[in-house]
Amino acid sequence: MKHNIITLSLLGCCAMAAAQNTEVQYLSGRDASATVEWKFFCSAGQNSGKWRKIAVPSCWEQQGFGEYTYGRWYKKPGGKPSTETGRYRHEFRVPAAWQGKKVEIVFDGVMTDATVSVNGKTAGPTHRGAFTRFAYDISRLIDYGGKNTLEVTVKKQSDDSSVNNAERRADWWLFGGIYRPVYLRALPKTHIAHTGIDAKADGTLTLDLTTEGLADGYKLAASISPLQSQAAQQSPQKSVSLTSGKRQRVALRFDGVKPWDPEHPNMYVLTLSLVAPDGSVAHRTSERVGFRTIEFRPRDGFYLNGTKLNIKGVNRHCFYPETGRTPDKRRDIADVRLIKGMNANAIRSHYPPGSPFLDICDSLGVLYFNELPGWQNHYSTATGTQILGEMMAAEANHPCIFVWGNGNEGGNNLKLDPLFAELDPQRRHVVHPWALWNGVDCHHYPAYQTGAGRLHNGTEVFMPTEFLHSQYDKGGGASLDEYWAQWSRNPLFAGGFIWAWADEGVMRTDRGDSIDTDGPNAPDGIVGPHREKEGSWYTIRDVWSPIQIAPMTVRPQWDGRFKVANRFLFSRLTECSMSYSVTTLPSPASDRGRTVAEGTVALPDIAPGETGTAAITLPEGFAEGDVLTLVATTAAGDTINTWAYPMRYADEYYALAKPAAVAGRAATADGTTLEGGGVRAEFNPDDGMLKSVTVDGKAFPLSNGPLPVGMKMKLKGITARQEGADALLVMRYQGAADSIVWRMTPAGVLGMDAVILNRRDGGKFGGEFFEPKVRNLGFSFSYPEEAAKGVRWVGKGPYRVWRNRLRGPVFGLWQKDYNNTVTGEGSGRLDYPEFKGYHANVYWAEMQSDTAPFKVYSETDGLYLRLFTPEEPKHRNERTMQPFPEGDISFLLEIPGMRSYKPIEQLGPEAQPSGIRINKGDDGLRIKLWFDFR
């Protein structure tokens, strides 16, 4: 088999003699997309008991071996984890020229215990722990230029109980295998073994060097070159004399460096050379470096380059359905881009993610909260010391890491806390997630009131490392607007991390490749298992947008100016751009939508934290439009956020878009029946409900409405009358509704004009008029769900909303096909956006159906359209959503909130049922609709 050998040296420089550089030969593939086959024997489960082939790197379950276990096995009666052992065998050759060098075999990650031998001889002690890089010196074990045999025995459950407690008794899928790359590393006898780097924003560079074979008279030569611009000139080389000691500290300074921050991720390649007394280069190596200064100021916050950080973070596991925890560079880059795309600037995980992923965060600009494993139990001190040392050696140099976590939710070994400072060349701050410790309150899942209390009554920095909760459609974006606004008013608020990034549905090779989320344990994501965007992704993007627009209306007299706030941390607003478009919207019967005008918005040159005025030079014909859309983009062209503003109110739009009148006979009213244009609507004389609709003599399945939602009303009487060519039925009520006027036009368009909450005597509406808690308010109708094929509408979309998750959807024309997606339900088909649920500010909607299509127009602003009732997740005992109204299709003035990890009563005011009071002289509220069955 042919192996790739690469030489690590400064990118873009001319080739150096091989003896001077670190040479690397991969024995496995680089990631899940580029693997190498090894021989494999699994002790139990799928495909066990026989030598076969397996892709390396991989989680062996995803290659069809062994058994699946979710980490909460110990909570199930009689639960046991899978405990299979895997044996790997692989033959390889190394160049004869490597004779005399130090040759190491490096494993980036193995789950969970790994015993390694080369040519039948043990490479070293068994390594325990899944998430850190480890290596063995195999210089004396290999046949240079000849064939070598590598054997690795991997135990899925560790022989060290503390490893199992920290890593395997956890709320995630447990895998086995060599899941990260394996490679050989050849070093000259005199070499730099490790470099700890502290690169400050002012260009100061402190290096903690570990060397081998170094004698007196050697010097260290150092230079830097921008990573993003390989054509840029390398900096002048700096030289420092070294002593013969194995470890030493070197201080350098480079002028003119551009500092690293998440909005300007300037990276450099640092080239280090050991220069012998005779001037020859004994060893040359390179490191990626970002110059930045990170500090924690007690009772103040985290600072980067002197700027106080506001962490907009998300918790992410290294996970993908088909590949488990095996990294994949393409997918990892896509993940970071998608996370940044919703305007997050930080990621946290429960374990070291591996240096390649941190390279991506360095280059794309994401802050990283790096955590020593320990989900809710900790390592022993001896094992934890080893794993902490490995984590620091592999990952401490990354500029994206701004803080360390020692375990999670009680999985903290306090004896390890002092070691972080000893091992970290940058001395970054250490916290205990979910605890108030070391000056940082990381309280998990604070209620709205709890967060306020901890901030207003406390004196420590507040940074919840888990808050809200994205399980199913719960949380994530729900109540984020209120949480963030309240917390941000306090200077002790440092930001926080939403739980969690993606639904962790694993593709089960033992179940026909179906997706399994272990019931309610793993569907915790803002996005689906294959990164399908759920509604909260757009809400988070809007709430966390670094450009915020003050509330405004766009009317004919608008002068084109609006207020914008710069909520970047490091960027002036003019580093971004904003465009506008003015469009008209089609009606259901017309495709008259067109672009009236488009252009750029003049943004003010304001610094972070400032507010200024943006302006559009209004073109001729501007007032002809229906919607103004604004799109903000980064300098690289990535969308920051989209805003859209209706330029007409619902009744004004209806006046232009209503169905055309049809000349013909006048409509008629006969007791409880309206008829016109071939449409006949019959109402129940006892309660005023729509009994039936027929169109040209054929029954139409819209009925049983208007059913009152959130209120009570009782019919007092029905009066029929003629108004020009229209026929009317006027229904009077006692209770919450005053009246409903039904109108039939000669064209067969049926209108409903309902007046509710009209109390001219100024009295309160008591329990005899309303449900105990008004979560929904309006009217419902029956319509068969099986008839629906899709919906096309003008309103906010395309995602459904909750009362406490209104931000994110954008006003415009939308279309989506019927689906029965249960958000995050791994066993079902996940088509997003979900069809069922509440849709905001609907102007008109067209129900698409082979048998019963119809259109409905609204003259009521802020009206919610409810489409059917979403199914509850099958594997959840508790209700995840507030009860939906009776009926199938509803037109509502109020909708309920969505709960998070906490009960809905512990979220902000927007999540709570509304209080209703109409003062004396008010005309109440109106819901005015038009149904077109033609």
TrEMBL record:
Top-rank taxon: Bacteria
Protein's name according to its UniProt entry: beta-galactosidase
Gene3D superfamilies, A to Z: 2.70.98.10, Galactose-binding domain-like, Glycosidases, Immunoglobulins
Domain Glycoside hydrolase family 2 immunoglobulin-like beta-sandwich: 190-292
Catalytic reactions of this protein: Hydrolysis of terminal non-reducing beta-D-galactose residues in beta-D-galactosides
The species this protein was found in: Marseilla massiliensis
Subunit structure: Monomer.
GO biological process: lactose catabolic process
Family affiliation: Belongs to the glycosyl hydrolase 2 family.
PANTHER family documented for this protein: BETA-GALACTOSIDASE
